[in-house]
Structures are given as C-alpha cells and as structure tokens.
Amino acid sequence: MRRITRITTVGIASAALALSATACGKSSSEAGSSSTSDSKAVKAAIAYDIGGRGDQSFNDAAYAGLQKAEKELGVKGAEAEPSEGESDADKVQRLTALARSGNNPVIGVGFAYAPAIEKVAKAYPKTTFGIIDDTSKTGPNIANLVFNEEQGSYLAGVAAAKTSKSHTVGFIGGVEVPLIKKFEAGFVQGVKDTDPKAKVLTQYLTQPPDFNGFSKPDLGKAAAQGQLDKGADVIYSAAGLAGSGAIEATAKAGKWAIGVDSDQYMQKGLAAYKDHILTSVTKDVQGSVFNLIKSVKDGKPQSGEVRMGLASNGVGLAASNPAYTKMTDVIAAVEKAKKDIVDGKITVKTTP
C-alpha cells in the first residue's frame, strides 16, 4: 500500500510524529502500537523532487530503490512529498523531521535539496544524508550520488540520428539548469558525431526559479508538438513528469520518443504510448538509493562523491522495445559508441 508522508509548513514536532506514524507499510493505528523491537528497526527515508512519486521517471526510480531495501534488507521506509512553490526552509523542515524520526539515511532526490541537506547534515552528524545529482554541498555525513548523464545522452543521440528519417531531431529540457545542460550536451554531440548534417531542435520549458518544467505535462506536450511541426521525428526529453506530455504528443504523431531516467517503455502510466518509446536514457537511481541504504545498515556508510557512468552501468540505454532490438544497425552503432566512451576514445561534453 502506498503511504506518503506529506510535510509542508507544519511544525517540526507534529511533522516528526506524522512521519513516524506513516512509515511505509504501516497504518497510523498500527504505528501507534509499535513494539520496542519495531522502534529499533533500521529506518530510511527519501524526500521527493518536484513532481513527486508517480512521475514515471526520476522520483519513481528512487522509490524503487527504497522498495528494494524494504524487501531485501528489512528496512522500514518513509517518504515525503514536495509542495508546490516551496522554499529551502520548507525542505529544511522536511529533512529535519525525517532525521528526527530516526531515519538513517535520509535521501534528498534532486539538486534542489542541496542547501537544505548542507544545513540539516550539520545538525544531525550521526545521520547519513544522501543527495542525488549534486556535488556542490559536501560533508563527512553527506553522500553525493551523481551520474554521467552526458554519456547516456550521447548514446541516445547516436540512436536518434540513426533512426531519424527527416534528419531533424528534438531535445526538450525541463528547466535550464547545469544538470539538464549535461543531457543536452551529450545528446547533441551524439547526434552530430553520427550525422553531421542532422538538425537538433532544442527547447527548455522554464527558467529558474520557475521549476514547473519538471512537473507540468502540458508544457512538454506543447513543446514536442512545436518540434514535430518543424519536422522532428525523434524527440528526447529530460523533463521529469513534464516529459510524459512530450512522449504523448510524439507517440500520437506516430514518431519516436526517447525517455529518461527510468526505462519509460516499462512504466505503466505510459503504457498507451510505449510502442513509440524507442529507448530511454537510464540512470541507476534505484541502485544508488539501495546501495546507500545498505552501506548504512552494514555500518559502513558511503560519503563523498559516488559517481556512476557507462563503465559501471550507472547510466545506459534501455532496450525493452522489441522494435528497437530489431534495429541491428542502430544497436551496433550504440554499442560501438559505448565502447569508445568507456575506452576513452570519445570524451563527452558536459556543456553544450
């Protein structure tokens, strides 16, 4: 059963009680009668990024890691959802409540948690804090879980260029921030290295401090339609929940979409469009969350930069669509590019 702890601007004490009462797998009434042994169980928590659980992408990948830890490690999990338009102070309050409730580790899903984690980690030095997609804030009890997104995106560019009939492809970024620029840079380089004459249409949905580009599917849908109208027949979106709108528009037009973060061909919420999801650039967010939880449980908590790239299968390109697996020339080109990146023959740019 899905149990989400929602913390917005409630007081710290009441928030902590709410978290304790809604740990994954327990109703509030069950939690109220917890035994002493329950209170000593290892607990772990994740605080979701914009879009929350159900985004069919980034947040859901993190949740899958927590689920795996619950099943394989016997960990008691807790979750906390973001609120629209929240401040860093709201994030501090959420993370504080999670730490005060005894969760260890506490994981912030997304770079937006960096300032809050830096502050709360100092207040709870015995708790390990994980942050995904950020290295700007460090500390002895902070694990920076990061990925070479540009490498996976390069492979997507190769696949897009090899698949396109119009020699025009599209990239849609949710919000124009350095992280998403990495996706763009790798994708464009992969396209151009494969087909120098190809045209890459690039659009960002919003600019900071407006982060709706990660959460509004209608924005992604409109952007994709604009690129389709300009002749794009393969569109890659790095836009969280907003990317689902781009996938919908692309699929309805009978063109190819490329997903991100999770294998979006396999996501139930996108089942109606999966035949047009050529592939997805995957990040092993699930594995990074699970590994951090396991390290804490084993008494050897990770800290510092924990980077995952093509060489460690931390990023990659999904091959779930049977139509894609039949494209032997595309797969051969992707595999060659992967080998060349791992061997150091290709250096992928991190900025456009």
From TrEMBL:
Q: Which GO terms describe its cellular component?
A: plasma membrane
Q: Which Pfam families match?
A: Bmp (PF02608)
- Report how it sits in the membrane: Lipid-anchor
Major localisation = membrane
Instruction: Extract the Gene3D superfamilies matched here.
Output: 3.40.50.2300
Family, according to the entry, reads as follows:
Belongs to the BMP lipoprotein family.
In Swiss-Prot or TrEMBL terms, this protein is called Lipoprotein
Protein's organism: Streptomyces laurentii
The lineage is: Bacteria, Bacillati, Actinomycetota, Actinomycetes, Kitasatosporales
